[in-house]
Design a protein that fits this description.
alpha/beta; 26% strand; nine-stranded mixed beta sheet
Length: 240
């Protein structure tokens, strides 16, 4: 891991960009001498790790007392897209607009993306936990499809917060039954890009003994800010 920049922000959070091989990422940490738990914060939908909503969530969580790490997923942010990635995105937009079935497109696009991303997140986890002042247990916050596979594969994940936005491939919906960590699941009731019943069925499938569903009115990008506070308190119960 090589740090390429460092800034102390006006909320007392230290923001550092890094590279891990050719993988770009950002780490936010509080100004604290005590060791702090780590939260991995993932995005989807072609977003950059520096997308405004993700950065705001990361800064709030760091100010609350966590280290927060984010990396760009394959084909997202600063990383190059393949022609196949662009075609899958175009096919998905067309099918959604036309009201056509999208499961085959989702399986062909999202599942390989998750399979590429999980080893990168585990390598990031190794590198960040090797830094002074950051320790486990570890939380995960964000993209549900990636989080399912990571929660199953990575024993250091102790709690997870999933956003219900986006479609989850069938194989990962089955894998959700193996997720056993405490879970906070956020659903936007009127999300135009995430059919409500699919999200409710996915929540029902999770194998966690402790799982909580928060549903709010509004579209995909309308998650209320108080859910960030609730998420920080959720992680406090399980990471402290």
């Amino acid at each position: 891991m090589q740090f390429t920049s460092a800034h102390r922000l006006d909320d007392g959070v230290v923001e550092r960009d890094f590279t891990l091989g050719d993988l770009p990422g950002t780490l936010w940490t509080p100004e604290s001498a005590a060791p702090v738990p780590l939260v991995l914060m993932a995005h989807n939908g072609g977003l950059h790790r520096r997308e405004g909503r993700l950065v705001a969530r990361a800064r709030q969580s760091a100010a609350y007392g966590y280290a927060v790490a984010a990396i760009d997923a394959p084909g997202h942010g600063e990383r190059p897209r393949s022609a196949a990635d662009d075609q899958h995105r175009a096919d998905l937009r067309r099918a959604l607009k036309a009201g056509e079935p999208v499961d085959g497109i989702i399986d062909a696009f999202i599942l390989p993306l998750v399979e590429r991303a999980v080893p990168e997140w585990r390598a990031t986890l190794d590198a960040v936990l090797a830094l002074p002042g950051i320790e486990g247990p570890v939380g995960y916050s964000g993209w549900a499809a990636l989080g399912i596979r990571l929660a199953v594969a990575e024993p250091r994940i102790a709690a997870a917060g999933f956003f219900a936005g986006g479609f989850v491939p069938g194989a990962l919906r089955e894998e959700a039954r193996r997720v056993s960590v405490p879970l906070l699941f956020l659903l936007q009731w009127d999300d135009e890009g995430n059919p409500r019943q699919r999200a409710l069925d996915l929540f029902d499938a999770f194998g966690s003994k402790e799982k909580t569903l928060h549903a709010n009115l509004g579209g995909h990008a309308g998650t209320p800010w108080f859910e960030v506070d609730d998420g920080d308190r959720f992680f406090r119960r399980h990471l402290r």
